[in-house]
Amino acid sequence: MKDQGDFEERQWQKMVDGGLADFSIPLWRDFCDGLHLRLLNNWLGGRRFEASLKTDLFDEAVGVGLANWICSVSVRMEGLDLMPTIAKRAADRHPGIITRQADVRFLKAYPTPCFDLIVSNSTLDHFKDESDLSVSLGELARVLVPGGLLFVTLDNPQNPIVSIRNRRSSVPSKSTGLIPYFMGCTVPRLELIRMVQDAGLTVERSDYLMHLPRVLFLHASRLFAAGSPSGRGMMGLMNSFELLNKLPTRSRTGHYSAVLARKPDA
Ligand SMILES: C[S@@+](CC[C@H](N)C(=O)[O-])C[C@H]1O[C@@H](n2cnc3c(N)ncnc32)[C@H](O)[C@@H]1O
Fold it and tell me: Is 120 in the pocket of ligand 1 (CB under 6 A)?
């Protein structure tokens, strides 16, 4: 476990050392944030929370991320990230949130249940060992108060592009270029549902998210200024791919699986 943790940390350190500027693609960040926020708003409606946790701070370090929305529905928001640089950068950009360096597999800072909302978008799909997925889901379930909600997304391995990409990026020397960081183990939506249930939570909703060819549009987004007429056109085109979620092929086109689960009342 320690060697795996060290391996993963080295991979993330390489990403940080390479500079995070390359990830700050405004149009792409706006698109990702918007997609997640629409799903969260749809699933959570007008609910309000006492204390929320976000399980990585990458989105908040390179863009607006989900922090403003989470703060708007929560009295208090905390966020953690394995990499101190990312946690610090997110804290600089979002002084209203409490940030810390921590590993989502060992939430020692929270000995007792204390969150009624946890947002975990694509954090748990970066482990080298699949068993860490259950470990981290167990930790997240542990720190949820009864009645609290977990929103979790994972890369969808049923999408052939994700599947091929993950095979390439599991070789460290190839985690560069179009695949800028290390991709870990992930599981299909039904397996994620089973794992969430095994962690003691009740699944309320599940779906697929982000149906465009991600790597293509991520890089194409660099060519358009967010908010410009052409940027708005590009944003419309990217969002229109979500119509694919209505087709029977959605498990093949969705880049992410998403699950909303609730910790049963005590
Ligand atoms: C590149 S990102 C992608 C996540 C982002 N939320 C998204 O949807 O694109 C992965 C982030 O998770 C962090 N991370 C990786 N392993 C982690 C762990 N075990 N605990 C907490 N954060 C972790 C990394 O430092 C990085 O900031």
Answer: no
Among 2, 82, 133, 215, name the best residue to mutate to test ligand 1's pocket (greatest count of ligand atoms within 8 A of Cβ): 82
**The tokens 């600089």 sit on which residue?**
92
The finding on whether 155 has its CB within 6 A of some atom of ligand 1 is: no
Q: Quick check: 170 pLDDT over 60?
A: no
User: With a 6 A CB cut-off, is 81 part of the ligand 1 pocket?
Assistant: yes
pLDDT (0 to 100) of residue 20: 76
The pLDDT tens digits of the residues spanning 63-97 come to 899 999 999 999 999 999 999 999 999 999 999 99
**How far is 157 from 21, CA to CA, in rounded Å?**
28
Calpha distance 231→119 (Å, rounded): 28
Residue 242: partners with Cβ closer than 8 Å, 6 or more residues away: 35, 210, 211
> How far, in Å, is the centroid of ligand 1 from the Cα of 57?
7
Domains detected in the chain: 2-262 (3.40.50.150)
Residue 40 identity:
L
pLDDT in tens, 239-248: 999 999 999 9
* Ligand 1 proximity of 5 Cβ (cutoff 6 Å): no
CA dist., res. 195 & res. 179, Å (int):
27
Report the pLDDT value the prediction gives residue 5, as an integer from 0 to 100. 66
